Automatic annotation (TrEMBL):
Pfam family, one: Hemerythrin
InterPro entries: Hemerythrin-like
Name of the molecule in the record: Hemerythrin-like domain-containing protein
Domain of life: Bacteria
Residue ranges of domain Hemerythrin-like in the record: 10-143
Length: 164
């Protein structure tokens, strides 16, 4: 899926969540099968589209959205939620890179309970679901409800310096 044009950045990011969560639902569906090789094949089939998409999504949030929110709303709840979301980006990327590396490696023949544990895979899927939910129900409404923050985001995008 191509990334959505960012005319309304918050709406575009919300739509991108749909793609990310759909891909994770696919991983979860394969996870229900006992077959480690089917799991690995599914992961290999989505990695090249999924990882750059997620990395760009996180980068936009960290380089444009979060700084604007911190500057426009430098209060405890905003700071806390952004700290948590930033930490979760790192956790999710580590999880995803490990998982895709496993899918490409010969260690996958050790099976899901060997090199990669089924519950660890589920933990990463749950993490990104909760993360997306927190953004959509907490941070994004704060940003949308703050005209100054929206203007700052639009101004950064209009300058075109970030590559988004
Ligand atoms: Fe995020
Ligand atoms: Fe997001």
């Amino acid at each position: 899926m191509a990334q959505a044009p960012i005319n309304n950045p918050i709406l575009a990011l919300s739509k991108e969540h749909r793609f990310i969560l759909e891909q994770m639902a696919g991983v979860e569906a394969v996870l229900k099968q006992p077959d480690a090789e089917a799991m690995a094949a599914h992961l290999r089939s989505i990695e090249s589209a999924f990882m750059p998409f997620v990395e760009k999504h996180f980068r936009f949030e960290e380089e444009v959205l979060f700084p604007a929110a911190l500057e426009a709303m430098p209060v405890g709840p905003t700071i806390r939620v952004i700290l948590q979301l930033t930490r979760e980006h790192g956790e999710f990327l580590r999880w995803a890179r490990d998982l895709f590396a496993w899918a490409r490696s010969s260690r996958r023949f050790e099976g899901l309970e060997g090199a990669v544990r089924r519950q660890d895979i589920k933990a990463g899927i749950d993490l990104i679901r909760q993360h997306s939910h927190l953004e959509v129900t907490d941070l994004f409404p704060r940003i949308s409800g703050n005209p100054r923050c929206c203007q700052m985001i639009e101004a950064v995008l209009a300058r075109g310096v970030t590559g988004f």
